[in-house]
Design brief:
The chain is about 50% helix and about 15% strand. By secondary structure, it is of the alpha/beta class. Strand 3 (about 105-110), helix 5 and strand 4 form a beta-alpha-beta unit. Helix 3 crosses helix 13 (about 305-320), helix 4 packs parallel to helix 5 (about 115-125) and helix 7 (about 160-175) packs parallel to helix 9.
Length: about 350
């Protein structure tokens, strides 16, 4: 009888211990959760987002997807704040400080310029707020600091070299017999750049041309202009070239908005895309994809904003849960021509 009572007592103690353990927090495999994991309520966490410029078509799409992705990850819509930085680095820094003062638990920043990102990093690190950069990559110097000091700072985006190389490949794949419209053995090209301080601008500009020159194709730069990623500016640049009678066989644009501006200008000329001139962009905007399908744009490079937005939301969730992220979370571009434009357009419309 005594032995039975002891056995029952042991069972009772064991059961109480297990129940207490459940109260403390064990997962379904019996592994104890950390105090951070146990106490975090994602819906209570505040997310501060700064976008370099709302009027940028690509970032407008990205912003919309990011809002959805954050809510899907459990963040409350009421705790997500978006700021338009109006392409002003000083304003963006002020906005970052304000978000921190208002209790942001994580920051997501699309920097106005790569150079200004270092100041934003310093502000966030000093405040102890995790920071996620999106779309515009900070400088290599800044990124090296994240690694060295193991700061909670990460960048989510694609390798700009790949986008430039894909632009070059689109032209190369057409063949000199098609692109060299005057038959002189040289491709005369125009480059329309985005923001000159933007790392992506610099790299896309370099690698689109480098890919062709490395393939042994002779090139002549007719004009290299700054379009600042604006459609209207690119339209003006191309219209001027047409009025001056410049012989241009290829127009490289650092984004789709400028590529669309170029084809807007070409509508008022006797030059036909795909026959007299070839135009390529980057981003994979719906209008650009449709233009590729219609033969009005030679090609583009799809920058998957939807997947990047999901990655940013996942990184934010990990940071506020006390977990670490890789300092660089990469995505891949997709080369777009008439062969696959319809498929990609269908996918992004779903």
């Amino acid at each position: 009888m005594k032995r039975s009572l002891v056995s029952l007592l042991a069972v009772f103690v064991l059961s109480a211990t297990v129940l207490a353990g459940c109260d403390k927090g064990y997962d379904q495999n019996g592994v104890e959760r950390s105090a951070t994991e146990e106490s975090v309520n994602i819906a209570d966490k505040k997310v501060g987002v700064c976008i370099y410029q709302f009027s940028d078509t690509f970032m407008s799409l990205y912003r919309e997807e990011l809002g959805k992705a954050l809510e899907d990850s459990g963040f409350s819509k009421d705790n997500i704040t978006f700021f338009d930085s109006f392409n002003d680095p000083d304003l963006q820094i002020t906005q970052v400080r304000r978000l921190i003062d208002e209790g942001a638990d994580v920051l997501i920043v699309n920097p106005v310029s790569s150079a200004s990102a270092e100041a934003i990093t310093d502000i966030a690190v000093e405040a102890g707020v995790p920071l996620i950069y999106i779309n515009r990559e900070p400088t290599a110097t800044d990124e090296a600091r994240w690694e060295e000091n193991e700061w909670d700072v990460t960048y989510i985006g694609c390798d700009a070299r790949q986008s430039g190389m894909y632009q070059g490949e689109i032209i190369s794949d057409l063949g000199m017999d098609v692109v060299d419209t005057n038959g002189d053995g040289i491709i005369q090209y125009m480059m329309i750049e985005g923001d000159p301080e933007n790392v992506d601008t610099q790299i896309r500009t370099e690698y689109s041309v480098k890919m062709l020159s490395d393939a042994g194709i002779k090139l002549e730069c007719v004009s290299d202009e700054i379009g600042n990623f604006h459609r209207d500016t690119a339209n003006q640049i191309m219209s001027k070239a047409i009025a001056e009678g410049s012989h241009v066989e290829v127009v490289f644009c650092n984004n789709d908005a400028m590529a669309l501006g170029v084809i807007d200008a070409l509508k008022n000329s006797d030059k036909k895309v795909g026959k007299d001139i070839f135009v390529v962009g980057v981003d994979g905007l719906e209008e650009a994809l449709q233009s590729v399908i219609d033969g009005k744009l030679t090609g583009t490079v799809f920058n998957d904003f939807s997947q990047q937005a999901i990655s940013a939301a996942e990184a934010a969730e990990k940071f506020v849960s006390g977990e670490k992220n890789d300092h660089y979370i990469a995505c891949r571009y997709i080369k777009v021509t008439a062969e696959n434009a319809a498929k990609i357009l269908e996918e992004i419309k779903e």
